[in-house]
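Translate sequence into structure tokens.
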Amino acid sequence: MEILSVGIIITVLLLFFSVVIIQQGTVGVITFFGKYSRIMRPGLNFKIPVVETIYRRISIQNRAVELDFQAITHDQANVYFKVMLVYAVVDQQEDTIVTVAFKFMDERSLMQALTRTIEGTIRAFVATKKQAEILGLRTEIVTHVKEEVDETLLGWGYHLLDLQLNDITFDDAILKSMAQVVASNNLKAAAENEGQALLITKTKAAEADGNAIRISAEAERTAAQLRGQGVALFRKEVTDGMASAVKELKDNDLDSSLVAFSMWTETIKHMAEYGKGNVIFLDASNESLEKTMKQMLAVTVKDLTKE
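Result follows.
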């Protein structure tokens, strides 16, 4: 009875120690007397007690690590990087799991090698560039690191999923000088824009003045033409009127000099009404009047002859 109880106890213990539960997202690596034997997938698994042991549990989930380090540019400027890496096991194939399990002694050794590899690759790239170029080379740095590091990580059983340059900074003196350069460039751009605006304003003003002068000249020319046409029409109407009056006087056997006399008197009257206080001296003698009439008659006859 005692032997049976001992047997049952031993069986229960063997069964207890043979049961292995592998969590989701991990793969167990089993060794047989210290030598690799097989892998265990997530879920309930069994192993031979005592002779088989779980060497490591390999996570197949994505991992992230953040790195802080310094690099020196080609022109001897210090650049400080904050880099985040996202990496994972390439796949769940047995060969890959074995490589991951036995390539490094522990997780700390893997992280140290990964960190130094990333830092060395970035430092080698930055050493060929000038500090003024670094801020604009984020994409190029990430692409270069992926190309250089991915092959190395594949040899370790890992794959670099993502690399992010979260922060790139310089020494305070360099940051201050960069800020001064940006400020001076902004002032230069502002001055250039102000000059262009002033040039445009003056150009438009000159164009407006030129247009105004041209319009004024055209208006003056049109007005002069109209004034000339008005004077010509006035003279023509006066001549036509005088000719008609003279003809009517002749038809009625009257002296045509009466027209000239009437125009002369109307002129004197107009000058007296609108002369604004000016004094007009007239010679009222018979000789002067006769002389004036002869002169007006001569002008009238001349104009009629032209008609």
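Note: Helices lie at 2-18, 94-103, 107-126, 131-134, 138-156, 172-251, 257-274, 286-306.
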